[in-house]
Every structure is written in C-alpha cells, then in structure tokens.
Write a structure and sequence with these properties.
Order of helices and strands: HHHHEEEHEEHH
CATH class: Alpha Beta
Radius of gyration: 16 Å
Oligomer: single chain
Helix content: 40-55%
C-alpha cells in the first residue's frame, strides 16, 4: 500500500484513525464536517482550477499545483491540526522531490481564517519523513487497532461515533 497524504495527516492526529482508514473503515463519506471541508475547498478559490493543475503521483493527490512557480496549495477548514497539515504538505513536497520536482514550496491556506502559511522542506524534514513512513507502515499493518486517544481531542472527528459508541470509557 502506498502512503497517501491522508495517511500522513492521520498518523499525526490519531493512530487509531489511521489504522481504521487504512484498513478500509472509512467514515469520511458520511461526515458533515468532511463535506463542509470539501465544499470550502471547492468554493474558496473558484478560479484556481483554471490556473493550476491537479497532480496524482505515487499515492498522493495534490489538488492545486502551480507548475510554473512550483507551489503546492493545500486548503484546510481550520488550523486545529496545523502541525499535521504542515507535515502533509511537506510529504507532498517530499514525493514531488523523489519524482524530480526540486525546489518546490507549499502554501497552507485557511480561507475562513484569512491565513496562509508557507511550507518548506528542509534536510531534517526529509529525515523525519523517512522515519515517519516506517512508523506509518507499522501502524497500518498492525494486527490490532490502536487505542483511542482522549475523548476531548476527537469530538469533531468523523470516526468519533465509531470509536466511542458502545465502549466503556477508561
């Protein structure tokens, strides 16, 4: 299985969510929050698809890539998981680099917050990504689903009901 940007993002948010997603338990299709994010993505920059192209390569899918300036654009609804978002873009830059696109940069965009952050890929980031890829594979291929995280951290997660219904809180 190729590691996608979603796998990378979920690894940094919740190992349980990563394991469930990678093992075919997909709750995003029924989540209003996920739908809201997709709608924001489609409506925030209406003319962007005319200027930039979509790229699918080695398991990742970059929705908006400015090939002329080598800039990955990633749109997110909120900055609640900003570190995971940043590493997801760094992973995109890493995959592009592995495929001969050097010196690309990223822009992490939060339209509702009127906030944009530049994302760069450094030498230490490349090393960290290599280590994270090994750990992601270990989580994905684990025999058991990882434990839940603290309930307050996952209240807006599309897997919330799945993880918390019918289980005794510890």
């Amino acid at each position: 299985m190729q590691v996608t940007g979603t796998h990378f993002n979920y690894y940094l948010i919740c190992h349980r969510k990563l394991w469930l997603f990678a093992n075919g338990i997909n709750m995003e299709s029924t989540s209003d929050l996920v739908y809201e994010g997709k709608l924001l993505h489609e409506t925030s920059y209406s003319r962007r698809s005319e200027k930039y192209q979509e790229i699918a390569i080695d398991g990742i899918k970059i929705d908006y890539f400015d090939a002329k300036n080598k800039v990955v654009h990633e749109i997110k609804k909120s900055d609640k998981h900003e570190e995971a978002h940043e590493w997801q873009v760094k992973y995109y830059l890493y995959v592009l680099e592995q495929n001969g696109v050097t010196d690309a940069t990223g822009l992490l965009e939060y339209p509702r917050l009127h906030k944009t952050d530049q994302v760069l890929l450094t030498i230490p980031d490349r090393e960290a990504i290599g280590e994270m890829l090994e750990k992601i594979e270990k989580v994905i291929h684990g025999d058991q689903c990882p434990s839940r995280i603290q309930k307050w951290k996952c209240k807006n997660c599309s897997y919330f009901d799945f993880c918390w219904s019918g289980e005794v809180e510890l």
